[in-house]
Each structure stands twice: as structure tokens, then as C-alpha cells.
Amino acid sequence: MKQILFSALIAVAFSAWAQAPAKEPAKPEPAKEAAQTQAEPPKQAAAMPRKPRRWTEDARHCLERGSNTEIIKCAEEYL
Fold it and tell me: Domain residues of the chain, as ranges?
């Protein structure tokens, strides 16, 4: 009887210990975080504007090119 009770207590204690929430890592201070974000220039504003995708258009005219390399370069615009 004592062995069964002891085993049950160990099982309950182990399952409760396994489900304990993990500690959250320490967060940096807001002042330091704000200084870091202001020091870095925004990357998206510096990027070149993208061309609109043309995958719905027909690229069969690229097949009339002379070599495979020219065909590939022409067809890449439609990917």
C-alpha cells in the first residue's frame, strides 16, 4: 500500500515539474532598444522599387530568341 502511494506521489510530482513554465529571458531596457532602432536606417526605404510580376502574361515570344541563354534571360522576367 505504501509503495503504491509513494509511486503515485512521485508520478504526480514529476508531471507537475515537467509542466512548469519556463522562465522568460530578460528583456533589454526600452531606452537602449529605442537608441538601437534609431541608429539603424530603415532598410525598406533604401531598397529599389520592385517590378510588377508578370506571371499571368504569355512568354512564348522568348522562344524565338537565338540561343538558350537569351531564351532563359527573357523568360526570367515572367517568373
Answer: 54-79
